[in-house]
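HUMAN: Quick job: go over this next protein and say how the chain folds.
***
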Amino acid sequence: MPYYFLTLTLDFFSPESISSPDAMSPEALSLVARMPDVMEALPSGVVTRIFSRLKYVQLEAEKIAETLEKDEEENGNQFLVLLKISPRISERLFEDHDCLKGVNYRFEFEGGTGLLRVIPGYRHEYTTTGLLQKVNLQLDSMGLNEQYRWGGATRYKSPLRNKEGDQVFSPSARWPSSTSLQWPTVVVETGVSESLPRLLQDARWWFGASDGEVRIVIIISIKKTAVHFEQWQLAPPNAPRPLTRAYIDSLRRNPSNVPPLLQQPFNMQQPYSCAAVDVTNTTVDGAPMTIPYCALFDVPVRPPNMQDVVLDAQDFRFITAVNFS
């Protein structure tokens, strides 16, 4: 099963930073001196516009969606950068997802720059909700159906940036109230395959902005002929610095590889890919993927009558079925 280290440098984050361990040495890994910003690791062909009116944003977003849907692989750029956008307009884009008249999107905002991720076609939503269905099925079979919620594209904030994920999972102890919005334990980010480097930077942001309160980020990268899944989490605070292949292998061999259930400041975090699954019309490679109960519900010990969520090859067949029909 392939896995990846997230190798980031002081000056910028580049797609080349995400490498197979066979193509790099442990010495190439480094800790990060700053949080990724809203412009990090965007794909070639990203569309950039100075904001003037929402109507023009709608037209540009429609063009991006049409281009993606016409592409044979439904791959390419799905991002629209909006410069000189006011907090008032950004608030509208966050709060009113109908303001672009039928364009499905996720939004983030930082320092006068907005980033719109256009959601093409049906594959994105159906694949993401397929994952949710399989997780729900296992949790509900343990009688937990009223102990968690999925929060959809809820907006979360760091001091510099506001951001929506595709889905967020919160146990009852972290449900929001009128006075607080706690971080979810699990985040799902989905995009076309060209967006994978960017989605990995999004994972880094979720871990960093939450000081590790987000325990797991699941990345889904979709094209018409294949769907790629990655599960990211933080290494323990006492892990080698930098992480070594041997240490990652030892974590992966652990039947219940629970991420640290504590806060870690951003500059001390070492995220790594603990699982990767690739699905095509005829194959499923890398399954199963295990989502630890303790990470989902943020508890130190799993009760004896509870189990981890284990997604096997048959589950991934269901999750991705609409992509190959």
Confidence is low (pLDDT under 50) at residues 1-5, 7-30. The chain has seven helices and 17 strands. The two ends are 26 Å apart (CA to CA). The longest strand covers residues 226-234.
